[in-house]
Amino acid sequence: MSDHDSPPNPEDQPPQATKSAAEGGYIYHADIDPEYKELVLKQILTALAGNGVKKSDVELSHFDGETLELITITTLKLKSKLTDRRQAGKVSGPAEMSSPQAITEAVEREIHKITHSQDVIKRIKDAIVGRKDQGFLIENEWIKFPFLTKSYVVYEPCPQCRAQGRMNCPNCQGKGNVSCPKCYGSGQETCSSCGGRQYTHNPQTNQNVPCMICSGSGKKMCAYCQQRTTVQCNKCRGAMVLTCSQCNGHAHISRVFIAEIDGLANFEYDLDNLPERVHTILKDLDKKAADHVIYTPILMQREQERDDNAIIIPYQVKAPLADFIFKIGEEKYGGFMFGTQAKLDNLPYFLENILSDGVKDLKEASNGEGDISAKIIKAGRYKTLRQIIMATIKLGEVKAVKAVLQRNPIGLSQETCKKYVAYADRAIHLITDKPRKVAAIAGLIFTAIIACIYFYTVRAMLMSALPPMLLIGLVIDIIVSLGVAYIALYGVKMTAGLVTRKTLAALVKSEPKSIKLGKAGQAGKVAFWVSMAIFAVIVGSTFLFGQNAFMPEWVAQIQFFMNR
What we know:
The protein has 564 residues and is α+β, with helices and mostly antiparallel strands. The chain has helices at residues 21-24, 35-48, 100-114, 118-129, 276-285, 351-354, 356-366, 372-379, 383-394, 397-407, 414-464, 470-503, 505-508, 521-544, 553-563, and strands spanning 27-30, 58-88, 95-96, 141-143, 150-157, 166-168, 177-179, 188-190, 199-202, 207-210, 219-221, 230-232, 241-243, 252-268, 294-297, 310-328, 331-338, 343-345. Among the domains are: 10-77 and 103-139 and 270-325, no CATH class; 349-429, no CATH class; 432-563.
C-alpha cells in the first residue's frame, strides 16, 4: 500500500489539471475505517447462520484494506436548440436581430460568454449540485437550465399587405360600393303590381288595362338602391380598405425565436490508474455505484476558462476496499470488499461445501431413495436448503432460484442453486405423486356426475328462464364446463398442498398457512383436459342415445347442418 497522503483540492492544482479525469490522474490511498472489517464478518456470519456452522468456528484471519481517494469529473457540454413562432406586429421584449442567421451567431456568442462568466458557471453548478444525485455518475444525459433561455425577434415586412397594414377590400375591389344585389345594378326592379306584365285585368270590363303603378312599363325604381345601381360595401362599410388579417394592421410580422441552452452531461474518471477490479465493480454497479462510495462536489472559487463550451464539476470520491481471508474451521476462503456497503466480490461459493451433507439427503430424496419425507426434513435442517425447499413448494423453479439468491447473495452460485431447486422439486413431486393421481381420478368422477346432472336436469330449467337465444346457451355451457374442469384442477392442487403440509410438518411448521396449494403437475393437466372431454362426451350422449329433449340448442344446430 502506498503512503497515506491527503488528496489535494483541485482548486490548489494548476488550471490544466482539471481538463479530464484521465489527464488529472489523482488517486490517493488512505487508511480504511476498522468498522468495515466488522461489516465483512457480519455478512459472512449471516450467510452461515442456520447452516450448521458455529459462530466460534468462523474467523476473519486477514484484512488488508485502504480507502481509495480520487478525483472524478462531470463534464457539461452546452448546446442550444432554436424554436420559432410568428406573431402579428412588432413584439417588444426579445432582442431584435436582423436575420435568423444573426440569431444563430448570437446564440453561439452567448454560449461562449456563459462558459467564461464565473457568475453564470457558479449558477449552473449550483443547479446541478442541487439535484438529488448532485450530478454524480450521470452519463449522456441532457440537463435543462431555464435561466439560460434567451429570446430573439426578427421583424419581417408583412407580405400580404406589403407592409402597409391595410389592403383593398376584396369584396368591392377597393371601390367602397358594390352592385345592388336586388336590381343587379340596373336601378330598376320588376313591378310588384303587374309582375312585369305591363298590364292588369279589370274585372268590371273583363279587359286588360295598362298598369297604373309602372305606367305600363313593367318596371319601377329599385327601392333598395334608389336607382343609383350601387350600394355601400357591407364588408369595408365604404372605407374601400380593410385591416390586414395577417399582421393585424401593424405592417410587420414578428418572428420570435426561443433559444434553449441545455447541457449534455458525461462522467469521467481516471480509468488508466484505477485498479482493474475496482473498475469492473463500478461498471457492474453502473449508477448504483453512487450508493457505494462517498462523493463530494468541489465548487472552486474561480473556474478555468475553456474554449470548447464545456463546464466541469470535480468530485472528491472515497471508496473503501480490502482483501480479506476468513476461516471456517480449518478451511480458508478469500475475497474482496468494496464500497461503503461492504459489497463482497470474488468470493468462492463456500456454502456449497457447508451444505454438502444436506444436499446429499436432498438428492437421495429426489431419486426416491429411502424415506423421502424424512430425507427432505433432514436436508431442511440447513437454513439455505430449507429456503430452497420452501421456495420450490410455493414457486416455479425460475422464481424459486431468484428468491433464494436474493436471500443468499454470497456463498452460492446460480447454477448450483438451480440444481438444488431441481432436487427439491423432484423430491416434493414424489411425495405428492400418488395423492395427486387419486385427486385427479376423484375430480374426473365429480366432473362426470356434475355434467350428467347439469345436462339432464338443471340445464332445461335454466334455459326456460332465459331468452331463447342460441349464443346464451353456448356461453353458459362453456362457463360451466370450464368451471368444473378448474375445480378438478384445484382439487389436485389442494391435495398436493395438504400432503406437503402433513408429511413435511416438521419443516413447514413456521409457515403452514402460506402453503395452501401445491403444484398440480401432470395429474392436474390430465384432470383439467379430461374433465373437458367428459363434458363433450355427455353433450354427445344427449342425441346419440335419443335424448333429444335434453339436447343443447347449439348441438341441435350442428346436427341440422350435418344432416343437410
